[in-house]
From TrEMBL:
PANTHER family, alphabetized: GLUCAN 1,4-ALPHA-GLUCOSIDASE (PTHR31616:SF13), TREHALASE (PTHR31616)
Keywords: Hydrolase
InterPro entries for the chain: 6-hairpin_glycosidase_sf, 6hp_glycosidase-like_sf
Record-level GO BP terms: carbohydrate metabolic process
Recorded GO MF terms: hydrolase activity, hydrolyzing O-glycosyl compounds
Protein name, as recorded: Glycoside hydrolase 15-related
Species for this entry: Phycicoccus elongatus Lp2
Keyword Amino-acid biosynthesis on entry: no
Length: 434
């Protein structure tokens, strides 16, 4: 099957697991796609080739078989946003998450060598997205991957090799990882994780061990929610001297998720400790970072960390809402999306994960028109082969890896929340009529 422009109709893309089985590894061919549109040093070109399909699948029978497997996989679950303008984008995002999944269960952050690793953050969002589309076992596997890889004390490295053999370099660990993993585990309990753990005792053992280590790490790092943690990098992945909102907000989400997860496991002691720490830690965050909720409290500009203090991660606070809206206004870029922060480099480029994160917030908090606005923009900047790139340059050209797991996952999750919002409103009208 030849590649086609997504506007010409649905295009089924191959299952990368065939490539893995053939010994080619997860990395796809790396070429420059189209015009370079590169400005200044350090700006990556588009790293993902649309023709890796043809490069690895020369046998027509193999291609047809993989096309069928992809469609069967989609049919075995569900596609959030079905029947809406974003259905095709969500469908492509789900297939990209499937193709980014390694035989070990690990979920790669993106296509291309620099992203060919599993970040706890990206895997957490990807796992929840897969579960929301009906693929709970694959979601659990993406998180289970980290269970034997925890550091002493329960922490997690910033990223891991996909075969679970270690880390790719000496990059320091990031403390937001355990928070995101616990948030995902807690969220998965609402989608049937408890039943899956009852049916698979070994999975329950591994996820309990993972969650216990992550919770111990958060409780130690925050002195049971009473202090801000030791400083590490956050989603900006740069060294910093002060704790950022993007570091501590995931830790709060993780404590709340741990309380839910351990309640499901019938472990009231750990559930109570997690809930108590979350209740203590939230006012610590609000006090330190309020009232302006900039990246470092009173400085650094507003960034996407504000989104991590919005639903569905925690309850909405008026001051945070104001900061969240202000972030969108100040971080808007010429290419139509959002930069990671208002003080980010003023190159005009938009970053799709942060834009999709805001769409997820909006969909989760009953702001459907705003969510649709950002999702419509994301749909408009997809690559010709349908994937969402990491970012869009100031002239509208995509850059970085495409697909990117975090963005793909957030698009699926936003669509899922919009579906729930529509169902709630429909049920409300039906009840009123009755």
């Amino acid at each position: 099957m030849a590649w086609a422009d997504r506007g010409a109709g649905r295009v089924t893309r191959p299952d990368r697991r065939w490539v893995l089985a053939a010994g080619a590894g997860l990395a796809v061919a790396t070429i420059t796609a189209g015009a370079t549109h590169v400005w200044g040093p350090g700006v990556p070109r588009l790293h993902t080739a649309p023709d890796w399909y043809a490069a690895h699948l020369t046998n027509r029978g193999a291609r047809a078989e993989l096309d069928l497997l992809n469609q069967e996989w989609l049919v075995s679950g569900s596609v959030p946003g079905r029947g809406t303008d974003i259905e095709d984008m969500v469908r492509s995002a789900l297939l990209d998450l499937r193709r980014l999944t390694a035989p070990s269960g690990a979920l790669a952050a993106g296509a291309g060598m620099k992203w060919n690793y599993s970040w706890p953050r990206d895997a957490a969002f990807g796992a929840l997205a897969l579960a929301c589309a009906g693929h709970l076992e694959e979601a659990a596997a993406a998180l289970r991957f980290f269970a034997p890889l925890q550091l002493p004390g329960g922490g997690l490295e910033s990223r891991y090799l996909l075969d679970g053999s270690g880390v790719p370099d000496a990059r320091p660990a990031q403390s937001d990882g355990p928070g995101w993993v616990l948030w995902a585990l807690g969220s998965l309990t609402a989608i049937g994780l408890g039943r899956l753990l009852e049916a698979q005792p070994s999975l329950a053992v591994d996820l309990r061990r993972l969650a216990t280590g992550c919770l111990d790490h958060l409780l130690t790092s925050t002195s049971a929610g009473t202090t801000l943690p030791v400083v590490t990098a956050d989603f900006w992945e740069v060294e910093q001297s002060r704790a950022s909102l993007g570091l501590v907000a995931p830790m709060l989400a993780g404590l709340r998720g741990a309380a839910t997860f351990f309640t499901t496991l019938d472990d009231p002691g750990r559930a109570a400790r997690a809930a108590s720490a979350a209740a203590t830690f939230e006012p610590v965050i609000l006090s330190h970072f309020g009232p302006t909720f900039q990246r470092h409290g009173d400085r650094g500009g507003r960034d996407a960390g504000t989104a991590m203090l919005m639903p569905p991660f925690t309850d909405e606070q008026p001051a945070v809402l104001e900061a969240w809206l202000g972030y969108q206004q100040g971080a808007a870029r010429a290419s139509g999306g959002l930069a990671p922060g208002t003080d980010w480099w003023q190159h005009g480029e938009s970053w799709t994960p942060q834009t999709a994160l805001v769409a997820f917030n909006a969909a989760s908090s009953g702001r459907a028109p705003l969510a649709k606005q950002w999702l419509t923009w994301l749909d408009s900047i997809r690559t010709p082969w349908g994937s969402l790139p990491e970012k869009v340059l100031n002239d509208g050209a995509p850059a970085g890896p495409a697909p990117l797991a975090w963005t793909a996952a957030l698009v699926v999750l936003a669509a899922y929340e919009l579906d729930r919002d529509r169902q709630i409103r429909t049920d409300s009208v039906a009840n009123w009529v009755r």
